[in-house]
């Protein structure tokens, strides 16, 4: 058991070290969401106007973009495994006494910690967009971000468990993960879209991650109109997080199993 | 008891029998060489011994631990330098070593001391704060040697340790290996396909098509397989080869502008 914990922190520590040292990654992780926010916000803001009374499009999209950053970061944990495999470092980890599950969870915790840092920095934008923050809200947000990130990294790690090349991973990201992100309610609420789209959105676990983060930002009044409702029941933050954790947990177990059995 | 004990070890990839019923033992403190062409099963054998591959048959123990049932114990007992770099090039030399120390649970005081010692030994002390991506091939290999020894393993596995290095760097690496061995009473298990490198070993095993075809000291092996190869350039290669055949009964081949032939004792023949 102690070997697993050591694995988690050693591997997560390296992820953080690399995140801090790679300037380009540090920069792009902040620039990308900002570009999305500015372009989509300016492009759609005027046309769409208020989403519900008191919530304009930018205020709606901002939590969505934060959620997108978290999801992308979680998927990056998988890229990191494939990267290590391609450049050989994975072997160094695999022949060490660290257990296989510790390695996978370490990648996941590393990505989640990076997400928490990114989200904290992105909070600077909240006052500009007229979104009020409280200490309690920030704490709740960062906790939920961490939990969601650890869970969703299960998806990235499962894809990566046996993937040999980064190109392969990128392909899967483009044809599966990007559509899932777009259908998760980042740019529009999933309640008033065509039925087929609503169906896909509501079985898409990422939707619930986005919803949880948005509800924390916008409060429960706005939530009633914008949040995900299943058969008339509006999901609460806790229920949202639970859906993501169960889904992510199952994928993570399969990922660890698959990773441990490989040769 | 032998530090490495291998009995009837096999590995199948689908229909391909990569390692076929291999048995041998390595004594503590020995430099044991695995020699053979590419694809002979050297790396597959090493990977099974260091727990990266599961054998499909047979049994192997390293430092008394079973490579299938006691993987964690085996991993703590061994150090590795692979054919291809396994360093994190985005981190510094020191950060790479530290990661290794954390992974192998080396206490802090011991860690600093061993790091200084080993970096000194492989002559990288001055570059410890540099990113590995700025290192030359030889420097990277030396850093990997130092890292492989950081946790004081009982057995050091070297898979083609000098692959892709120039002759000067190769000699350098070998000096380090001999140094390390003297200091640590280390058992070294290495693979190579360079004949001249194999001479550094106490014992050599020759493997081909997954099977052991010879195992002995370098000198005895050389004597038994026709001793030395002699290469010479003559004004008229064809005539020289003809003369060798008629005078000494040696069948010589001509390639690359050279006459080559095998003989038991190259030195004494030369003096004639």
Descriptive account of the structure:
The complex is a heterodimer of chains A (263) and B (272). Chain A has eleven helices and four strands. Chain A has 263 residues and is mainly α. Chain A has one domain. In chain A, the strands form two sheets. Chain A has a two-stranded antiparallel ribbon with strand order 1-2. In chain A, helix 1 (2-21) crosses helix 5 (100-122). Chain A is globular, with a radius of gyration of 18 Å. Chain B folds into two domains: 4-223, P-loop containing nucleotide triphosphate hydrolases (Rossmann fold), CATH 3.40.50; 228-271. Chain B has ten helices and 13 strands. Chain B has helices spanning 42-49, 71-77, 93-103, 108-121, 137-149, 167-184, 195-198, 218-224, 237-248, 266-271; strands spanning 4-13, 16-26, 31-35, 57-62, 65-66, 78-81, 155-159, 187-192, 203-208, 211-216, 228-232, 253-255, 258-263. A six-stranded mixed beta sheet of chain B has the order 6-7-8-3-9-10, sandwiched between helices. A four-stranded antiparallel beta sheet of chain B has the order 2-1-4-5, covered by helices on one side. A three-stranded antiparallel beta sheet of chain B has the order 11-13-12, covered by helices on one side. In chain B, strand 1 (4-13) and strand 2 (16-26) form a beta hairpin. In chain B, helix 4 packs antiparallel against helix 5 (137-149) and helix 5 runs parallel beside helix 6. The mean pLDDT of chain B is 85. At the A-B interface, helix 1 and helix 4 of A face helix 2 and helix 3 of B.
Can you give me a brief rundown of this structure?
The complex is a heterodimer of chains A (263) and B (272). With 263 residues, chain A is mostly helical.
Quaternary assembly:
heterodimer
Largest interface, per-chain counts? A-B, 24 and 27 residues
Fill in the CATH topology of the largest domain in chain B. Rossmann fold
CATH class of the largest domain in chain B: Alpha Beta
Cα gyration radius of chain B (Å): 21 Å
Helix/strand class of chain A: mainly alpha
| End-to-end gap of chain A | 23 Å
Task: Find the structural class of chain B using helix and strand composition.
Answer: alpha/beta
* Average pLDDT rating of chain B: 85
Please give the largest β-sheet of chain B.
6 strands, mixed
Helix percent band of chain B? 25-40%
């Amino acid at each position: 058991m102690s070997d697993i914990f050591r694995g988690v922190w050693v591997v997560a520590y390296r992820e953080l070290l690399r995140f801090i040292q790679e300037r380009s990654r540090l920069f792009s992780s902040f620039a990308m969401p900002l570009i999305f926010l500015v372009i989509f916000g300016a492009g759609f803001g005027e046309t769409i106007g208020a989403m519900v009374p008191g919530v304009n499009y930018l205020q709606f999209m901002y939590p969505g973009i934060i959620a997108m950053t978290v999801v992308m970061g979680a998927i990056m944990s998988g890229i990191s495994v494939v990267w290590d495999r391609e450049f050989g470092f994975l072997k160094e980890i695999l022949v060490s006494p660290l257990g296989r599950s510790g390695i996978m969870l370490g990648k996941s915790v590393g990505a989640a910690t990076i997400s928490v840092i990114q989200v904290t920095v992105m909070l600077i934008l909240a006052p500009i967009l007229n979104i009020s923050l409280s200490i309690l809200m920030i704490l709740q947000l960062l906790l939920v971000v961490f939990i969601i990130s650890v869970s969703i990294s299960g998806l990235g790690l499962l894809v990566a468990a046996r993937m040999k090349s980064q190109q392969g991973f990128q392909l899967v990201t483009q044809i599966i993960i990007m559509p899932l992100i777009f259908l998760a309610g980042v740019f529009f609420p999933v309640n008033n879209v065509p039925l087929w789209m609503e169906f896909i959105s509501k079985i898409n676990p990422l939707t619930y991650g986005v919803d949880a983060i948005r509800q924390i930002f916008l409060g429960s009044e706005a939530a009633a109109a914008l949040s995900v409702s299943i058969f008339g029941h509006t999901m609460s933050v806790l229920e949202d997080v639970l859906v993501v954790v169960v889904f992510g947990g199952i994928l993570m177990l399969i990922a660890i199993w698959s990773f441990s059995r490989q040769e | 008891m032998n530090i490495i004990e291998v009995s009837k070890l096999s590995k199948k990839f689908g229909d391909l029998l990569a390692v076929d019923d291999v048995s041998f033992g390595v004594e503590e403190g020995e430099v044991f060489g695995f020699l053979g062409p590419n694809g002979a099963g050297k790396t597959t054998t090493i990977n099974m011994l260091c727990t990266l591959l599961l054998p499909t048959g047979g049994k192997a123990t390293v430092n008394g631990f079973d490579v299938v049932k006691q993987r964690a114990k085996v991993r703590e007992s061994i150090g590795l330098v692979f054919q291809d770099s396994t360093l994190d090039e985005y981190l510094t030399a020191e950060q790479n070593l530290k990661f290794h120390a954390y992974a192998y649970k080396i206490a802090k005081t011991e860690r600093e001391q061993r790091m200084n010692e080993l970096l000194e030994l492989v002559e990288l002390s001055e570059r410890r704060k540099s990113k590995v991506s700025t290192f030359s091939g030889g420097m990277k290999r030396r850093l990997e040697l130092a890292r492989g020894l950081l946790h004081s393993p009982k057995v050091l596995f070297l898979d083609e340790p000098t692959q892709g290095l120039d002759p000067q760097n190769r000699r350098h690496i070998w000096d380090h290996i001999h140094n390390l061995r003297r200091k640590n009473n280390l058992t070294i298990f290495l693979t190579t396909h360079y004949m001249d490198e194999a001479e550094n070993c106490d014992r050599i095993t020759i493997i081909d098509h997954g099977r052991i075809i010879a195992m002995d000291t370098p000198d005895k092996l050389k004597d038994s397989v026709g001793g030395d190869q002699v290469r010479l350039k003559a004004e008229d290669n064809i005539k020289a080869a003809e003369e060798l055949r008629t005078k000494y009964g040696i069948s010589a081949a001509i390639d690359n502008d050279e006459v080559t032939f095998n003989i038991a004792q190259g030195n004494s023949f030369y003096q004639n």
